[in-house]
């Protein structure tokens, strides 16, 4: 029989390879090639398993490190007022911008804030709550990052998260907008919109920076509207406690926005007052009730502080000045003396206010005198302040303020008695004590409403 020209090769099997066996010369060249292929396959499997293990370990360690830095439980376990951490990849950046556009609060990590501020290289200001740094988002939007002083107590962390959740729901054209926050084991920070022109104080107290007085009047009205919103339109009434020119920020168009609201303890709208647990605010702007131990502090303390700001806008100077003879020149007392003598118009001239603005300056002076009344009950609400500043109403003559300077005590903060000797009572719905409504026609022809 004739033999076939092809060599028949049996199918390869892993059974042929064992630790105790090796190919013999009789197996031929084809057997050696099969062993080589098997070796390559085994090496590939080992490399694949090694890479898989390294990848799993890498992601596990990275996740543990990230959670340690955040100092917070997994997102599924966060309280209802917390928001998910924003991750820094491209797709998440788009999502973040959408969240900002929807006015939703964003939670940042400490690393992200460090990147936004170029490792906190530009310090923009500081205050009682912390230090402010200038920064910007990757899309070029400028921001202000306020790094807060904090306590390590757990309760403080819970309070911080709750208050940030409340502040994040507040939107008003005259309030600085909060974009987001950071809270971890090492730092607490708030991320605000950036205000190009800084704070009002540099325009009032520095000769190089000047704003026309008419614009200052508009700034005063806008500031009053922002405070009125905090007091009267938020679900939870917010007392600022530190109204002053440094907390009135101006954007690129010199539009005013109140800053640092909500950083003090929140006051529920249903409560008439909060107990004073320590001095708050800035000396020179704080209401006299802060000087009395255990005296209830109401939202009217902000009204007093705003009145002090109005005095500084009128004079474009600090209220308290030490003269060359080392005597005290206190501008609010000077305004009252001029008002009492009927010389407010003369005072506006000494303040170098132009003729076209003097009527508004006199109006602002009367509003300021109402705001700084000793008794919180006598001070107007901020919505009434807005009405009086905007015009269209006749401002009633204010009582004499600053009685507390001569008699610090509970009696100095009690409302004055009426003409009949009865105690003074006032409802917030009735603003007739501070002003009376008028119409353009009545104003034109100097018609007054009859009083019963």
UniProtKB/TrEMBL annotation:
One of the record's GO cellular component terms: membrane
Topological relation to the membrane, as annotated = Single-pass membrane protein
Q: List the molecular function annotations (GO) for this entry.
A: ATP binding; protein kinase activity
Segments passing through the bilayer: 34-60
Could you read off the lineage of the organism from its UniProt record?
Eukaryota, Viridiplantae, Streptophyta, Embryophyta, Tracheophyta
Source organism superkingdom? Eukaryota
Q: Which residues form the Protein kinase domain?
A: 118-403
InterPro entries per the record?
A: Kinase-like_dom_sf, Prot_kinase_dom, Ser-Thr/Tyr_kinase_cat_dom, Ser/Thr_kinase_AS
* UniProtKB keywords: Membrane, Signal, Transmembrane, Transmembrane helix
Q: What is this protein called?
A: Protein kinase domain-containing protein
Name the Gene3D superfamilies on file. Phosphorylase Kinase, domain 1 (3.30.200.20), Transferase(Phosphotransferase) domain 1 (1.10.510.10)
Q: Where in the cell is it found?
A: Membrane
